[in-house]
Amino acid sequence: MSFIEIKNLWQRFGEQVVFEQLNARVERGEFVTIVGASGCGKTSFLNVLLGTQRPSRGRVLVAGQPLRDEPDAERGVVFQRYSVFPHLTVVQNVLIAREFEGSPLLGRLFGARRRRALAEVAELLQAVGLAEAANKYPCELSGGMQQRLAIAKALIKKPKILLLDEPFGALDPGIRADMHALLSALWREHRLTIFMVTHDLKEAFQLGSRLWVFDKIRRDRHSPEAYGAHITYDIPIDRNSNALRRGAQQTAVAQRRKYEAVPTAAGR
Amino acid sequence: MAALATAAAIQAIAMKKLINYTPSAWARVCLGLLPFAVLLAAYIVASDIRLAQNPSDKLLPSIGSMLAAVDRMALQPSRRSGEYLLWVDTASSLSRLALGVGISAAIALVVGVLNGAVPLLRANLSPLVRAISLVPPMAILPILFIVMGLGEGAKVSLIVIGITPFLIRDLQSRTLEIPAEQKIKAQTLGASSWQLIVRILLPQLLPRLIGSVRLSLGSAWLFLIAAEAIASTEGLGYRIFLVRRYLAMDVILPYVLWITWLAFVIDWMLDRCSRRLYPWFYR
Q1: Which runs of consecutive H residues, i.e. helices, occur in chain A?
Q2: Which CATH superfamily hosts domain A26-85+160-267?
Q3: What pLDDT, in 10s, does the model give residues A47-89?
Q4: Chain centre distance of CA B98
């Protein structure tokens, strides 16, 4: 039995079929990157995994159990924006996960329990490179640092599944390369199962251990919404092949140099 | 044609467009004070003209007689009651205002956040709030006096009835404005509905509540003065309407200025508090 089983999943809104007949098995520790044209149901699929959207037909099993149809701590998520709480500092943003589980009524920890949780948070912030910014508010952080924070928050709950919806879409190229390195390291270290939607094909090949392409196979010219997208390609990527990894690193470094050489152009 | 020619001439001399001129800090202060100075001067001139024609004119009292009135109301004990009337009026008006606005804000925070956060409650309460917000508060003032008597209760209730529906509706929409991503993220961090409200929504709504209260203060003053004018024994609104019988403009005008000043100070203090307590909201 696979870790995640997707069985004949359909999503339709009224007349419009977003995706149809999705069938797949994903093992623990796989990093699935999802690409496809806009409106192909990539985000819809992620929302189904997240539990914010009910599929019209079919189901998703995680470790043999059907998925709960509301977001919970089993599944972590990072959106393109708004994944951090603006009224809490960096530390508080991560700590709040421990406070939710330790204090049902107030949602706050005190004394020794708070100190213990803070130590754990500090370690995590160190790992994502935010130790220096611990007491800043998100509005004082750059876009890249905010996404680091969002990832740190997702990791503290040690979710079974991590869902990323174009998490680096709004970042500059140089910072993006940093984030790729960070995410790869965290993926290996925590043996995470990741689904990541992206528009960037290169990113998809670089990061994923498996690449899905969402596309419509059948088309009806008179009613374009009659058929939905399928997983048209399911490409395994050998992330452990050193040549490939070195290649990826080199491109990342090259990108970084290019970015640093023309700071004004990249800044825009 | 002449206007065009002048415009062209100005353009030729100045080179920059009008919208690109910004005043320096000093110039801004002076430009801001100028209209006040002009108004004051206009008043003094008009008052002088009227008083020259008729020394017992009451409509535009001189600055001197207004200062005398301020002295009488604020610095001398009243001959009848021995109280310093301006301060007694101010204290009772401000306490009514604070009580009314405080109660309204508390109700609005609770109902507004719950309405915004829980769709089931919103379906239940939102139409009611909307209907109540359409009732003209002044029209039910007589009902309040009948039900609650002429005491403090009726005056405070008028403020509460007057501004609470607005505050609730505003806070409800502010709650709905908080990005859905944040609510989802909180749930993936293990938050229950209650924890989500207490730790994510409520704290983010407090600065927005202060903002809404600032906007509603104008109406709150309106309802306060209206209630005081009709049934009261002290208060700023009561005093203005009392001395109106003697055409005592020398008392009314300083009182109006005083009320305006109080409104300004309250607004300014709320703004300062909000900026100090919620720095993350202002970036």
Answers
A1: 42-50, 90-102, 111-127, 143-156, 173-190, 201-207, 242-261, 263-267
A2: P-loop containing nucleotide triphosphate hydrolases (3.40.50.300)
A3: 999 999 999 998 899 988 888 888 988 899 999 888 899 999 9
A4: 12
- How far, in Å, CA of B41 to CA of B47, rounded? 10
Spell out which residues of chain A touch residue B192, defining contact as CB-CB under 8 Å: 100, 104
Domains and CATH numbers, chain B: 85-282 (1.10.3720.10)
Q: Going by DSSP bridges, is the β-strand pair A193-197/A31-36 parallel, antiparallel, or unpaired? A: parallel
DSSP, collapsed to helix, strand or coil, labels residue A207 as helix
Which 8-state DSSP code applies to residue A51? T
The residue type of A151 is: I
- Alpha carbons A151 and A124: distance in angstroms, whole number: 10
Residue of chain B whose Cα is closest to the Cα of A90:
B280
Q: By C-alpha distance, which of B107, B97, B213, B106 is closest to B156? A: B97
Dist CA B214 CA B273 (whole Å): 12
Q: Which residue has the higher pLDDT, A172 or B198?
A: B198
Helix, strand or coil, per DSSP, at residue A199: coil
Q: What residues of chain B lie within 8 A of the CB of A50, using their CB?
A: 184, 188
Residue B28, CA distances (Å) to A262, B20, B32, B41, B261 in order: 40, 15, 6, 20, 21
Q: Which residue in chain B is spatially nearest to A80 when comparing CA positions?
A: B181
DSSP string, B156-179: HHHHHHHHHHHHHHHHHHHHHHS-
Of A70, A87, A97, the CB nearest to B190: A97
**Percentage of chain A modeled with pLDDT above 90:** 26
In this predicted structure, the answer to whether residue A97 has a pLDDT above a threshold of 60 is yes
B277 in contact with chain A, both atoms CB, cutoff 8 A: no
Between A173-190 and A242-261, two packed helices, what is the crossing angle to 10 degrees?
150
Residues from chain B that touch A90, judged by Cβ atoms under 8 A, are: none
CA distance B129 to A79: 34
Beta bridge partners of A26: A4
Which residues in chain A have Cβ-Cβ distances shorter than 8 Å to B281? 86-87
Q: Which residues of A have a CB under 8 Å from any CB of B?
A: 50, 52, 70-73, 75-77, 79, 81-87, 96-97, 99-101, 104-108, 137-140, 150, 153-154, 156-157, 159
- Please give the single-letter amino acid code of residue A5: E
- Indicate whether this complex's ipTM tops 0.90: no
CB A58 within 8 A of CB A9: yes
DSSP state of B149: T
Q: Do residues B87 and B176 lie in contact, with contact meaning Cβ atoms separated by under 8 Å?
A: no
